[in-house]
Amino acid sequence: MDQITPKAVKEFKIVGTRPLRPDGIDKVTGKAMYGADLYAPNMLYGCLLRINEPHAFIESINISNAEKLPGVKSIITFKDFLKINPDNKNNPILENCIANEKVLYDGHAIAAIAAVDLNTAKKALKLIKVKYKKLPFVINIEEAMKTGAPIVSVGKKNENIPDGYSDNVIQYCSFGNGNLEDGFKTADKLIKRTFKTPSVHQGYIEPHACLASMSNDGKADLWCCTQGHFNVRSICSNIFKMDNSQLKVTASEIGGGFGGKTTVFIEPIALALSQKSGHPVKIVMSREEVFKATGPTVSSLVDVEIGMKKSGKITAAKAIIRYEGGAFPNETYELGAQSAFASYDLDAVKTEAFNVLTNRPTQAAYRAPGAPQSIYAVESVIDELCQHFNLDPLYVRILNAAKKGTKSSYGPTFDDIGLKATLEAAKDHPHYNAPLKENQGRGISCGFWFNFGGNTCVSLNINFDGTVGVVEGNPDIGGSRSSISQMAAEELGISLDKVKTVIADTNSLGHNDVTDGSRVTFSVGLATIKAAKLAKKELCKRAAKLWGIDEDAVIWKEGYAHPAGANAGNQEPLSLEDIAKVSSQTGGPISGHYEVNAEGAGVSFGVHLVDIETDMETGHSKILRYTVFQDAGKAIHPSYVEGQMQGGSVQGIGWALNEEYIYNHDGKLQNPGFLDYRIPVASDLPMIDPVILEIPNPGHPYGVRGVGETSIVPPLAAINNAVSRATGIRFTELPLSPPRVLKAILNKQ
Amino acid sequence: MVKVKIWGSLKNLADGSDYILVTGSNFKEVVDNISMKYPGLKPQIKRGISLAIDGKIYKESWFTPIDKDSEVVLMPYMQGG
After folding, report:
1. Å from A626 to nearest chain B CA?
2. A465 and A574, same structural domain?
C-alpha cells in the first residue's frame, strides 16, 4: 500500500493517521444496532404481498378474508395512500413501493399486512384475493425502444425525444464539442463496437429494515437503515402530508448502501400500517425482496466509435448510450453520457444517451451511477486501438489525458486534476512491468467521477470536561465518523480520543443531504472545520475574559489559548479543558455550529491495473494481481480511503466477472439470492493494492476530495481488456463468466 | 451578458446554438433569465439543472457570483451514489 503525497500538502498531526475505527468493536461483536435490531413495545410485524408477473393490470384486491384472521391488525393497498393524500396518485417513489393500477415488474408489491407476528402476517398474505390481467411486457433495451413495443407507462416522455422510438424512450440528452466528421476523417483507424452490461445489485449485506410508529395525532417516529434519513423524512412527510417537524427519522447503523439506500422502499408502508393499526410496525425485507424490489443498476447497450492516429492521438470519439432503469424515470443516463469521455482531452467528441422504461425493478444509484457502463465501453475500444497499433496502453492514455485547462467532454474546463499524475504513478509502479505468462493478460482502465457537496449541518459541542461531541446528520457508510472526529481534533488541536462524532436524528439538526456523491468527508468535514473555528473563537473569548484582556488579543494554537504578543500579557496558556471546565462560570456552554450548501467538490480520477489468467478449458478467469491508483485528495484516514478503493474495485470485479440479473422468457427474475447471484468472496481475490495520490482539492480547507465512488468505474474495462488480451478474443458483453468466455474460446477454435 | 454553454440536446429548444447569451450576475439571475429568454428550456430547468462556473459545479447556490468573463456551463442536476 503506497501513499504519494505532494510536498505542498499542509502538515497535519491527526489527519492522515490511521486510528482504530470507532465502530469496529460494536460491529464485530454484534452490538451495533442495525435496522432489523430495533424493537418497540406492542410492535407488529409487517410484510408485503408481491405479484410475480412483469406486467399486469390489477382488477381487484379483496382483503376481507385476510382481515378476519386473528392477529391481523392492519392491511393497506395503494388506495389507502390516496385517502391519506390524493396527490399520491402521481408519486413515482410511492408507486414503486406499492403498485397503483398496474404491476410494473416481477416482485412489485400490491398490498401490505401488519400482524402480531410474522407467521400470522405471512399466513394472511395468502388470504388476500387478487384478480389481475397479464399484460405484454418488455425487459430488453433494444425491444423496449422499438415502435410497437409493449408500453410500460404512458405519458412519461420528455419534450426532446427524437422521432422513431417507442413511448418507452422517455429521456434523451447529448453532450459534446468539436467536429466529429473532420476528426474521424483524420484518424488512421476507426473502431466501432457495441457493448452490453447487465443489471447488477449493490449487494449490501444488510437488507432494508425499518420500524415505524405513527400516532393518531399525526406524529411519527421512524427508525430505518438508510443513506439519508432527512431524505426519508422529506419523502414520507410528503406522502403523508405531514409537517417535517412531526416526523422524526433516526438512522440505524448501516450494513452497506453503495447508493442503493438513497431512497425508500418500505418506510411509507410501515408508517401507513402503523397509522392504521395504532401500533409500531416493523418491516424487514428478505433477500429475495431486496433483489426483486429494490434498485439494481441500469443495464446498458452502448455503441462507441473512436478514431486514432498511428501516434496514439485520439482524433474523434462518439458514444450512443442506452440505459434501462426499470419502470420509472431516472437521471442515470445523463451521468453516463457526461462521464464517458471525461478522462480525455478531445477536440471532437459527442455522446448521446437515452433512458428506456422496461418491466424491471426501478434502478437505484450504485457508486458513480451511470459511469461504469459507459466508461467500460470507451476504455475497451481505446484498448483495442492500442492493440491495433501495438502501442503501450498507458502511453496512449497519458498522451490523451485530460489535464488542467482541458475543456471536458461534458462542458466545463478542468481546474487542477490528478489524472496524469495517476497514470504516471501506474507507469512507474512495479506491477506495470511485471512479467506475464501464457493465458495471462494485463488490463488497464481509467475511471472518473464528479463528487458532490450539498446541504450539511454540524454542531460541535465542548463538554464541561474538555471533551468534544460532534453532531452530524449523515449516516456513516464508509468511516466518516472517524474522519470527522480527526478533522475536529486537528482543528481544535486536541487529542483524537477527546472527540466523539454521532449521527443525529432529523429533529436534532438542520437538513443534511443524503450520504451520496462521495460528499460526506468533503462536506461534513468542511462544516466540522468551520464549526471548530467558531468554537475556537469562543474559547479565545472566554480566555480573554479570564485574563481580563480584549478578545482580539488571544489566539488559538495547538489546543491552547495564548495571549497574542507582549502587550496582551504573559499569562500561562489555557487549554481547551481549562476553559471548558469553567465555561459555566464564564458565559455558559461553548459550541460551534456551521451550516452550508457546500459546493466545489473536486472531480476524481482513478487508474486500475489488473492481471488475469484465463483457463482456456473452462473459461474461468482468475485475478492474479490488482492495483488501484486514485487521486483521492488529502486522505484523512488512509485506511478508510484504501478500504473505499478496495471495496469499489471488488464490486466492479463482481460486475465484470459474474454478477447479472437473469430473467427467463416470462420476464421473471431467476436468481434473486446470493447462491445464484454470485458476488466475489475473499477467496476469489488477491489483496487489492491501493495507491493513494494526495492531490489536494483547492475547494476544501484540508484538500479533501470524494473517494467513495470512482473506484467502481475502471474494473469493468480493466478486466475486459485483461481477459481479451489473455484469450486473444475481444469481448463486448459482461459479465465475463466462464460460460460466456468458454463459448467464445470454442467458437474461435 | 453572460455566455452560457448548453448541452447538445437543449440546442434545438433554445436557438440552435451551443451557447446562449443572458444577463445576470449570479446563479439565480442567470437561470431565471435563461428561463425567461428561452421558454423551451423551462421543462429541463424545472426537472433540475446545475451550473459549472469556472470549472466548479454548483447545484443550487443561487447567489454564487458570476462574472461577465466566467465560463458558465449549464449541466443536468447532479446526483451520486
Report:
1. 24
2. yes
**A223 and A78 in a common domain:** yes
Give tens-digit pLDDT for A544-591.
Answer: 999 999 999 999 999 999 999 778 888 999 999 999 999 999 999 999
3-state secondary structure (DSSP) of residue A129: strand
- Least Cα separation, residue A599 to chain B (angstroms): 6
- Contact call for A597 and B61, based on CB within 8 A: yes
Assigned domain for A44 exists = yes
Tell me the pairing of strands A440-449 and A604-614: antiparallel
Q: What ipTM describes this predicted complex?
A: 0.95
CA nearest to B12 within chain A: A160
CATH assignment of the domain containing A560: 3.30.365.10
Dihedral sign computed on CA atoms, order A27, A33, A36, A41: positive
The DSSP code sequence of chain B is -EEEE--GGGGGGTTSSSEEEE--SBHHHHHHHHHHH-GGGHHHHHH-EEEEETTEEESS-TT-B--TT--EEEEEPP---
Cβ pair A360, A138 in contact under 8 A: no
Are A456 and A595 in contact by the 8 Å Cβ rule? The answer is yes
**Average pLDDT of the residues in A97-116:** 98
Same domain, A513 and A632: no
Interface touch A173/B81, C-beta < 8 Å = no
Helix axis angle for A332-339 and A371-389, nearest 10°, is 30
Subunit contact B81:A450, Cβ cutoff 8 A: no
pLDDT score, position A3? 64
Residue range(s) defining the domain that contains residue A490: 454-598
d(CA A630, CA A707): 8
The residue of A355, A599, A603, A655 whose CB has the most chain B CBs within 10 angstroms, and thus the best one to mutate to test that interface, is A599
**b/e for A478-508, b at 16 or more Cβ within 10 A?**
bbbbbbbbbbbbbbbbbebebbbbebbbbee
Contact B81 A411 (CB under 8 A): no
| Residue A491 shares a structural domain with residue A388 | no
Answer yes or no: do A412 and B64 touch at CB < 8 A: no
pLDDT tens digits for range A608-644: 999 999 999 999 999 999 999 999 999 999 999 999 9
Instruction: Select the residue from B5, B26, B51, B57 to test the A interface by mutation, using most A Cβ atoms within 10 A.
Output: B57
- In degrees, rounded to 5, the angle at the alpha carbon of residue A456 between the alpha carbons of residues A642 and A229 is 85
Domain count of the fold of chain A:
3
